[in-house]
Amino acid sequence: MEALQSWVSEHKLTSIGTVWASAVGASLAYNSRAKSPLKPSLRLIHARMHAQALTLAVLSGAAAYHYYEKRAGEKRETA
Fold first, then answer.
1. Whole-prediction pTM value?
2. 3-class secondary structure for 4-21?
3. Which of 30, 21, 31, 25 is nearest to 58 (CA)?
4. Which residues in the chain belong to E strands, given as ranges?
5. Which InterPro entries did the record assign (predicted)?
6. Which residue has better confidence, 76 or 19?
7. Distance of alpha carbon 14 from alpha carbon 23, whole angstroms
8. Contact 44/30 with Cβ under 8 angstroms?
9. Residue 79's pLDDT is what?
10. Is 46 within 8 Å of 27 (Cβ atoms)?
11. Four-point Cα dihedral 7, 10, 65, 59, nearest 10
């Protein structure tokens, strides 16, 4: 787990881009299997919206994690 955390911290943009691309692919795959009457262009728009929402959630989680780590580091230095 620590190796994964260090890789993600070194390659932040790559990991965010990978999450975004994976979310677009997963959403397109899910929408193509569903028998919905949506045009392919609308499916692509929906896939992008889902991917952007997931990316924002990941970025928010990363910001919260960074804040937590910074606070924990400050507490260790003062103790």
1. 0.67
2. HHHHHHHCHHHHHHHHHH
3. 21
4. none
5. Hypoxia_induced_domain, Rcf2
6. 19
7. 14
8. no
9. 62
10. yes
11. -100
Burial 6-35 (b: 16+ CB within 10 A, else e): eeeeeeeeebeeebbeebbeebbeebeeee
Q: What percent of the chain has pLDDT over 70?
A: 99
Q: Whose structure tokens read 């692919």?
A: 25
pLDDT, mean over the chain: 84
Provide the token pair at 43: 């499916």
Spatial contact of 24 and 54, defined as CB atoms under 8 Å apart: no
Q: Which distant-in-sequence residues (6+ apart) come within 8 Å of 69 by Cβ?
A: none
> ∠ CA 37-43-45 to the nearest 5 degrees?
140
The Cα–Cα gap between 75 and 44 comes to 46
HSE-up (13 A, CA, CB side) for residue 9: 10
